Amino acid sequence: MTSADAVLVGVDGCKAGWIAxxxxxxxxxxxxxxxxxxxxxxxxxDDAVLAxxxxxxxxxxxxxxxxxxxxxxRPLLGQRQSSVFSIPSRAALYADTNDFxxxxxxxxxxxxxxxxxxxxxxxxxxxxxxxFGIFSKIREIDALLIARPELRGRVFESHxxxxxxxxxxxQAMQLxxxxxxxxxxxxxxxxKALLCRHGYEMGFLDRAPPRGAAADDFLxxxxxxxxxGRLAGGSAKPFPKPPLxxxxxxxxxxxA
Length: 256
Description:
Blueprint: E1 8-14, E2 17-23, E3 30-34, H1 37-42, E4 49-53, E5 62-63, H2 69-73, H3 90-93, H4 103-119, E6 121-122, H5 129-132, H6 135-147, E7 155-157, H7 160-167, E8 178-179, E9 182-183, H8 185-197, H9 202-206, H10 215-233, E10 238-245, E11 251-255
Parallel strand pairs: 1-4, 4-7, 5-6
Antiparallel strand pairs: 1-2, 2-3, 8-9, 10-11
Helix pairs in contact: 7-10, 8-10
């Protein structure tokens, strides 16, 4: 299969679940929200190629710098390298899988995950609030890839800033997408211009994101869709090459 005849899907996590930018062969891209990753998969053909901004393949033990991919891509990103954070152990990710009804319970679960992370890392390292916030989404994909090994050949991890860098001729973006948690219009404009050079229409990128997703989620999913095209066409590069594998045999690499 080539990118010319594959359904390409770029995916990012968002407040409402998952935002997906999809392109059918010969068609204009579309954007949709899905409450679960399983629902997203069910809504797409069995041979669709998905690039996802979410860690895939979990370590049993965490070492300085991350699983391997993180340490390889950070030097590419210059000032943007803080956007790549290390993934704690599988045990830390599964330390507390409850749905939290109060903010107190959420912080208590974060503390539990951090304690487990410290006992399964060298040097001992807790869990950042940023990382903990996406644990449930990481587990969602992890569970599907364990239960359905056939997905491992078409659901791939990527990372928006690595994607933008690779799409920009291996030059990192100059401006941040956000400054202190607030959208940075100049950084968004820099990325939109790059996406347009790769075939997007500015009118598509300028539309309001679907309800439940932020503007940067939408842009990141759009970048992921271009990486799905590179994956389908055979031009995407894995970091590391060849990919590693976790304890379940799930490939571990950031593709871009």
